[in-house]
Amino acid sequence: MGKxxxxxxxxxxxxxxxxxxxxxxxxxxxxxxxxxxxxxxGQFWTRVDEQVRGQVPKVRIxxxxxxxxxxxxxxxxxxxxxxxxRRDDGLVIVDPEKAADKRELVExxxxxxxxxxxxxxxxxxxxxxxxxxxxxxxxxxxxxxxHGALRFGEEEEFAEEIAVAEAxxxxxxxxxxxxxxxxxxxxxxxxxxxxxxxxxxxxxxxxVTAENLDSGEVxxxxxxxxxxxxxxxxxxxxxxxxxxxEGYLTxxxxxxxxxxxxxxxxxxxxxxx
Length: 273
Prior knowledge:
alpha+beta, four-stranded antiparallel β-sheet, 34% strand
């Protein structure tokens, strides 16, 4: 089975400890035969991408860790089989000696995880801290994560999570077979506020129902003490939203999360006659 990384996006706070730890472990350190020193700037073998989602005032920020996916059928191995190999434990290594001058490996990776070292004229990437793993330790990025968003171990230990995990690039999962598994990758949210403008009040406890017009899925929520409602981790789809509250006429609106997360803004209800 080999080793695997589990990355739980919901637990990531964006502290970037992993990103800094990778630099700390590899800048000015020669871990041959796995890797030559990483440059001070221009390369992040582990990086945290920040995504600002929604519209003011309903905004959320998601953080997703990007790194080599240590694919079973790695495109970089196919591009240069004499220079890239997969260890018995599953870690994919770009041999710093045999990969010299093979700049084409940078473009071979669909995950953007391989970088070109201009000074050494070699392609470089995450090794899974193979030197630490061989010493019985975990990769440095995993070691410093304060929230357990990054974990590393035997695949069989993570079997239940892997069964529900996603790939960073789903369209490539079947062919590349990455061994970095993601939990809670950000999907869309649909949100809004229910108000009675005549009374200048928010409406607490209003029932909000969202119907996915593409799949037929139906979701239900209620407004909180601020009159807000949220549907988290919903599909990118077209929605029909029903809002109802005691003493008010029911309203029906449509919204789309196809292209982005959607804040529907204030939804006014009118008192029933």
